[in-house]
Design a protein that fits this description.
The chain is mainly β. It has strands at 2-5, 10-14, 21-27, 32-37, 41-49, 52-60, 68-71, 76-81, 102-106.
């Protein structure tokens, strides 16, 4: 993941994420960014300073769960998941298996 300063027009940091990224979000209140990846990972990245970031956690998700939404009011991350069949003729996109679609809701455990 590349983090840029759009006003200066430059990349200020890069952090490793999974392959096949499709979704990303940034929660300004917690200074956390997220990347959902087709390889079955959700990467949590924390902003330590204006130009400093590190991978804080890697969560396993079902393969191809790469669409992500972030609700900044409750700090929850939503990731779409499904099981897939076989691509027609072995090429192209495989169809979603009937009845397999789900939405994962990811949130931090409350502090005690």
């Amino acid at each position: 993941m590349a983090v840029s300063d759009y006003q200066a027009g430059k990349v200020v940091a890069t952090v490793p994420i999974g392959t096949g990224v499709d979704g990303a979000g940034y929660d300004a209140a917690s200074a956390d960014a997220f990347a959902s990846n087709a390889d079955g990972t959700l990467i949590g990245i924390h902003q330590d300073g204006p130009d400093q970031y590190h991978v804080a956690e890697t969560l396993q998700t079902p393969p191809a769960s790469r669409n992500l939404g972030l609700d900044p009011t409750n700090h929850r991350v939503f990731v779409a998941a499904a099981k897939f069949g076989t691509a027609p003729g072995g090429r192209g996109r495989a169809p979603v298996a009937p009845g397999s679609f789900s939405v994962m809701v990811i949130e931090r455990a409350p502090a005690h």
